[in-house]
From TrEMBL:
Keywords in alphabetical order: DNA damage, DNA repair
Family indicated by similarity: Belongs to the DNA mismatch repair MutL/HexB family.
Residues shown, of full length: 1 to 340 of 618
Domain of life of the source: Bacteria
Organism in which the protein naturally occurs: Paludibacterium purpuratum
This protein's record includes keyword DNA damage: yes
TM region(s), chain numbering: none
MF GO annotations: ATP binding; ATP hydrolysis activity; ATP-dependent DNA damage sensor activity; mismatched DNA binding
GO biological processes: mismatch repair
Gene from which the chain derives: mutL
Residue ranges constituting the DNA mismatch repair protein S5 domain according to the UniProt record: 210-328
Protein name: DNA mismatch repair protein MutL
GO cellular component, one term: mismatch repair complex
Amino acid sequence: MTMRPIRRLPDHLVNQIAAGEVVERPASALKELLENSLDAGADKITVDLAQGGIKLIRVTDNGGGIAADDLPLALDRHATSKIASLDELEQVGTLGFRGEGLASIASVSRLTLISRQEDAAHAHQILAIDGRLHPVEPAAHAPGTSVEAVDLYFNTPARRKFLKSDNTEYAHCAAVFERIALARPDVEFLLRHNGKVVWRLPQGSRAERVAALLGQDFIQASLPLEHVAGPLQLTGFIADPTYSKASRDAQYFYVNGRFVREKTAQHALRQAYRDVLHHERHPAYVLFLTMDPAAVDVNVHPTKIEVRFRESQAVHQFLFHSLNKTLSGSAGNRADATHE
Ligand code: ADP
Ligand code: MG
């Protein structure tokens, strides 16, 4: 068989291929947009979804905004304001840094990016249709940024076929929204789906945010926890073994503010509950691990849901002992609670 000559793929196609990894479904696009808003320092974020996010995802924030001249660059692949060197990558403190979120979303949707920096006289917008950029134009917008992605995967029918029903895609979007909102009680969030308000979350304490999202019964059945060992810090809430659900729904584990799934950590948490929990039930927790960013590699996968600890044994021990201590003290707390 005669092979065709080797050719460099056009940028547009490169982006669409990458989009398969970064924005597998509407919920992954929503995650990229929410993370951008948080990285921009927003303390108020509004999300509008239509038809499970397939028809529309719009995220509006009051963050720092993007300069008019930078708008095309924001949609460019591998263009980022968040890191500039390997050194910075190794201790990255922002949620994003790969510079492919917006480029990926733009390549599989009709995207409008509107932004205004605080000191600008007005906003500017740029449209990307099927990944192709239109000229920057003046627009109206309060300081901050709005990104609107319409008709996801309209130009990649193969991917579109993999999407599930609106309801299922919406459920994934809601899960992403809830994970992020749980971690940031200092930010006001609003979520609407098909025009109806689903979540209206005012700024508040961590306990208030957890109660709003997971229910007052979760907080009431939970033990607050705070442990420090050297550079490792763990805070959050773990449910009393009597609360535990039969599903894994209520397991939220964050590293430096990022929701992650990490085997070592999951194992340590399960072990800590082993003696107090019936084996068919699952623990419920919202836990925030804070550590030196250089001691954790977040650049394992484009979606960054996987991380690697440099010293996973130390992390395992710390998590296990922290939970163990709190859980073994819980018998007394429960007894108190019965007198209320
Ligand atoms: P990354 O987040 O990895 O840098 P993105 O493609 O998601 O890559 O975004 C590219 C750049 O566009 C960001 O580095 C940032 O400078 C800018 N940007 C994107 N979204 C926002 C936003 N909501 N507010 C301010 N700047 C933004
Ligand atoms: Mg990003």
